[in-house]
Amino acid sequence: MEKFLGKPRRFMGVDVIVVIAFSLLSGVFSLLPLPVGSNTISVSTGSDAGDRIPQMIVGFKPGTAGAGGYDAMNRVAARYGVSLRKVRILATGATLVAFSKPMDKAGFGSFRAEALGTRTADYLDADIRIQRALTPNDPGYPQQWEFTEANGMRIPGAWNVSTGSGAKVAVLDTGITSHPDLNANILPGYDFITSATTARDGNGRDSNPQDQGDWHAAGECGSSSASNSSWHGTHVTGTVAAVTANSTGVASVAPSAKVVPVRVLGKCGGALSDIAEAIIWAAGGTVTGIPANPNPASVINLSLGASGACSATYQNAINSAVGRGATVVVAAGNSAVNASNSQPANCANVVTVASSGRDGSLAYYSNYGTAVDLTAPGGDMRTSGGGILSTFNNGTTVPGEPAYAFNQGTSMAAPHVSGLAALMKAYKPALTPAQVESYLKQGTRPMPAGCSQGCGAGLSDANATMTLIK
Fold first, then answer.
1. Which residues, in sequence order, are bridge partners of residue 172?
2. End-to-end CA distance of the chain
3. 372, 332 in Cβ contact below 8 A?
4. Measured between alpha carbons, how far is 237 from 141 in angstroms, rounded to an integer?
5. Share of the chain above pLDDT 90, in %
6. Which domains occur in the chain, in start order?
7. CA torsion 26→31→33→38, rounded to 10°?
8. How far is CA 14 from the centre of its chain?
9. pLDDT at residue 19, as a whole number
10. Under 8 Å between Cβ of 182 and 391
11. Residue of 216, 232, 235, 416 marked catalytic
């Protein structure tokens, strides 16, 4: 059976299963008094804002703004399959000129260089669309240190390029619980757990990915002690794509992306055979007896794992997904050992993510080594406010009320990178998994205190990464 990495039945997100839950009814962090949906900020994606350029602003040289300069520029435009139309003279003195059809960024760049070569203009600026920067008003946002602090991921700057609109992220986990801070961003998923006992839903595989709870009694699942339900998938999903700027709860890395929840973990974990088929299905592949996924994911998050070398089953499933264009992001594991001993973190063609704490250093529990591609915030709850705050549920065994909780682990680090990959794919859908991985690595910065154990390319920086692909 597949398990969350760490001790038996201790899920990958936390080494010690202690979370600080703020339920709807607790009065500590209540959603009920908050004006849900007010002051919502609407943000366009980067592709809407800058991939297509409908017009330009031309600063003609003195004496060239007449027919001569305009005609020279129009001759250049003709070589790019467009014609020009004067719109108006701006208050700045420049001329606003429309293209007969929008130009892409690369084409405009080449046209601009040629047009300036006619020596009729001092400058040509693309008349880009400027969007209001996303400033979350979610009450939990100030506690999400990984978004804005110096040793976090510097996420707000990335939102000026993309918020993830159009991207789909499959979260293969314990499933999902209903949550007002998630529901609007959830697409139809699937329950891939074959065992009715593991699934706790009275049947095998079905179209309901709802988390039924993964609790167990003492003596079950190879553990001498009992364990409450983890609601692991709900927490991971909130980091990727919780509804943001809705005056409710928390913010997420890719607030305009959608999540396809795929249930693969239940009581005592999940079977490799189920997980492998879920990976293939999530990316749009065919699984016998299962309806086709209507929303193939461009990013797959695997905050799960087990010890051992990468199995052929895992590798074949991953290769299938990557071959269909999906980037597979994997948590490195929480055993403070070399990630080369943990699968699927040690598989090929995945993005393996280690965990950092609030100070930007490798978290004490995180796996490390050459299998790691980069490091992202996963939290350290030994210090106050050092965990990762996300969506949760307050049920002890079966689902209760929607809630929020601080967790820690590489399970929390991986969805930060999955969210960033979603921002990238939304902005440039043609990026291949190899290109996504390359940009993720290039966009890192050094760990503040270094990392002799092996933290991959360094600390993930969302703003730097998105700047690279603009």
1. 262, 302
2. 43
3. yes
4. 16
5. 78
6. 20-42+134-469 (3.40.50.200), 48-126 (3.30.70.260)
7. 170
8. 20
9. 36
10. yes
11. 232
- Count the alpha carbons within 13 Å of 243 in the hemisphere toward its beta carbon: 19
pLDDT range class, residue 2, cuts 50, 70, 90: very low
Distance between CA 93 and CA 426 in Å, rounded? 36
Calpha distance 164→46 (Å, rounded): 8
**Overall pTM surpassing 0.85 (yes/no):** no
The one catalytic residue among 138, 173, 211, 380 = 173
The rounded Cα 56 to chain-centroid distance in angstroms is: 33
The single residue of 229, 411, 418, 460 carrying the catalytic annotation is 411
Told to judge if 232 belongs to the known catalytic residues of this protein, a careful annotator would answer yes
Q: How many residues does the chain have?
A: 470
Smallest Cα–Cα separation from 248: which of 169, 174, 184, 175? Answer: 184
**How far apart, in Å, are the Cα atoms of 107 and each of 77, 127, 426?**
10, 14, 20
> Which DSSP state fits 61?
P
Question: 312: helix, coil or strand?
Answer: helix
Q: Describe the strand order of the beta sheet including 20-23 as a list of residue ranges.
A: 20-23, 402-407, 388-393
Give the model's pLDDT for residue 65: 62
DSSP label at residue 161: T
What residues have CB less than 8 Å from 94, skipping those under 6 apart?
Answer: 57, 58, 59, 60, 123, 125
Q: Which of 147, 150, 198 is nearest to 359 (CA)?
A: 150
What span, in angstroms and rounded, lies between the C-alpha atoms of 361 and 375? 9
Weakest mean pLDDT among 11-25, 130-144, 162-176: 11-25
